[in-house]
Amino acid sequence: MTWACERCGEGGGSKTYPTADEAALYARAFDREDREDLGRRAPLIAGIGPRLVRIARQRRARRRA
């Protein structure tokens, strides 16, 4: 299997798999658009949002002290 960067068009690399079926399996996974999972995965900010809020509160508390 070989691949290239869509943005710049340069060759990205290659890898050899034991069987053609295994190569096809990985090719399908890499060709999948991230948009297909939209709505099924939490956005990045949802994962780090609470932590960012906690850090902001701690900083505010330190400034007041």
Features:
single chain, 65 residues, mainly alpha, two-stranded antiparallel ribbon, 2 strands
Task: Please characterize this protein's 3D structure.
The chain has 65 residues and is mainly α. The protein has one domain (2-64). 51% of the residues lie in helices and 11% in strands. The protein contains two helices and two strands. Strands 1-2 form a two-stranded antiparallel ribbon. Strand 1 (2-4) and strand 2 (11-14) form a beta hairpin. The longest helix has 21 residues, at 44-64.
Could you give a short description of this structure?
By secondary structure, the protein is mainly alpha-helical. The chain has helices at residues 20-31, 44-64; strands at residues 2-4, 11-14.
- What's the number of helices? 2
Query: Which bin fits the share of residues in helices?
Result: 40-55%
Distance between the termini: 59 Å
Overall mean pLDDT? 76
Structural class: mainly alpha
Q: In this structure, how is the largest beta sheet organized?
A: 2 strands, antiparallel
Task: Describe the global form.
Answer: elongated
The total strand number stands at: 2
**Main sheet: strand order:** 1-2
The Rg value, from CA coordinates, equals 21 Å
Uncertain segments of ≥5 residues (pLDDT<50)? none
| Number of structural domains | 1
Query: How much beta, percentage-wise?
Result: 5-15%
Oligomer: single chain
SSE run: EEHH
